[in-house]
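Handoff note, outgoing to incoming analyst
You'll be picking up this chain. Sequence as last confirmed:
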Amino acid sequence: MKYLAIILFTFFTTSASYADYSRDYIDTVAAERAESGDTAISYRVFNRAEDHPKLLLIMGLGGAGYAWGDAFVSALESKGIEVIVIDNRDTGESDFFSAWGQPTLWWQLLKYKLGLSVDAPYSLTEMAQDSIAVLDTAGYQRVHVAGASMGGMIAQVLAARFPERVVSLTSIMSTTFAPHLPPPTANAEGNLRDLAEGDAETSREQRMRDRGFYPESMERHLMAIFKSGDRTEEVGTITSPTLVIHGSEDPLVPPEHGIHTAEQVEGARFVLVEGMGHNLPEALHPQIIGLISGHIDAAEQGETLNQ
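Most recent structure output, in case you need it:
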């Protein structure tokens, strides 16, 4: 099934860059906790300084905050940015929803296609509210926000629903989830038949946990995406300065998704990163971090001029 393939392919695209990954530095910073309703959310703060711009990072499907990796966080620090890294609910040291169980995917997807409400323990809106709880607990009034894949969707919801808290938005390899946008490529789905079998699958699952991705949570996260549905109109209400970054070789969320996202936001900038798939390989960090930090600098200058 196509959307189960999305979950599995997420494993493969991230495992391809596993050799470059380290979380040793991230683990030196103690996790803190915020209460979002009845759910405890874990987060870490790096490079604290009063005069640094503040950036909230939100990871994608099944991903905890440490999935960003040492290199990405350290590169942002080198630009003089204070970085807040959140563990999405159902990942890392945040509360899990294991008692809710796993959705019956084929049935939930059929309901979605028929225009019926899917069963999910939470929505993207509630996941966005988790970020607000973190900001409130940590004492941040306004921050820059960047999210990757599903994290980009959450970041979009934040910017749309809580504009007073978002200085700027960076949406990376993400989507509005508009139904007319292209599905994963045939090659992406075809590769699954060769990779999702036997001991290799078990080995990859453990590597994904080590890398910061939780297979047992991915289906619940997927249901949150389906429960939220097409957010095109909502994305169109975003007023924060917006940067949309997408990989030219993304087989999972094709570039048309990023183009469509940018088209909805007045004044948004779209950047296609040549050679990037649905991942953030370290070799491309200088370009990606440069884009993010430049966007933050421009937004900071714009906000100062408006005050």
